[in-house]
């Protein structure tokens, strides 16, 4: 999209030009990760919080490859199964990073599907503690409304199971989620390739998160660039407004003035 | 003194360690980690004045790649 066209993504008062958020898991190393972020034109990355390996205090650090001063870190709660775990983890992240925008994900043991009851309970704890919470969730529009009512600053339904690459399995529900809430909707998890990101954006959602689709591609840097273009194409097509589907052919060239 | 750090026992640590001196002792980059002591976050501003006691339970975390 030309820089002159302003179409920012606004989440909890923060303005982003890019609508593509990328993950930082599964890359060969942090250097490749940083190159993919640049190719994606991304301004936000999801990150995990884990114990420091005290046996390797000099191990490479994510923060040395992707600068949190110029890229917004979205600390996640991957691995947390209760609200208390999530709050505890994100309080540490807040002290480390100094920011309060976070990604809540409370997963179940059923194919990493979100545990929505526990997610909603965790969200309430985090909102009460002053966090701006982007919430990974199922594509149930009713539950998504409950998340918004509880204070979520972005709703992030899955396209397909995490890491599956199955693509946009239920476009109808994603559209219904978008219509059901007023905060930004970001499709998170399950996309496999750039055209699927475009298709999701064409539904009118506000952004995309991709990790495995990029990190797991044969050429992650090129796939990051493909996702960038996919997201832009989908957004532009949505804003442009697609034509109605018609059942029969309609000529594109005039049928008058033909030579005889 | 004894501390439980990231789930592992650390015996024979010098008495009177603060969070700041422990971090230095372990050779960790202070600005790139966060510390929880007995399930309470220790603010960075309090590292120097937070004196550890034997059998304290510490979690020391950092950001890593994730989705």
UniProtKB/TrEMBL annotation, chain A:
The active site is at residue 103. GO terms for cellular component: cytoplasm. Signal peptide: none annotated. 1-deoxy-D-xylulose 5-phosphate binds at residues 163, 189-190, 211-212. It is found in: Cytoplasm. It catalyses: [ThiS sulfur-carrier protein]-C-terminal-Gly-aminoethanethioate + 2-iminoacetate + 1-deoxy-D-xylulose 5-phosphate = [ThiS sulfur-carrier protein]-C-terminal Gly-Gly + 2-[(2R,5Z)-2-carboxy-4-methylthiazol-5(2H)-ylidene]ethyl phosphate + 2 H2O + H(+). Residues 11-254 form the Thiazole synthase ThiG domain. GO terms for molecular function: thiazole synthase activity. Pfam families: ThiG (PF05690). Its EC number is 2.8.1.10. CDD domains: ThiG. Catalyzes the rearrangement of 1-deoxy-D-xylulose 5-phosphate (DXP) to produce the thiazole phosphate moiety of thiamine. Sulfur is provided by the thiocarboxylate moiety of the carrier protein ThiS. In vitro, sulfur can be provided by H(2)S. Homotetramer. Forms heterodimers with either ThiH or ThiS. Belongs to the ThiG family. This is Thiazole synthase. It comes from Litorimonas cladophorae. The gene is thiG.
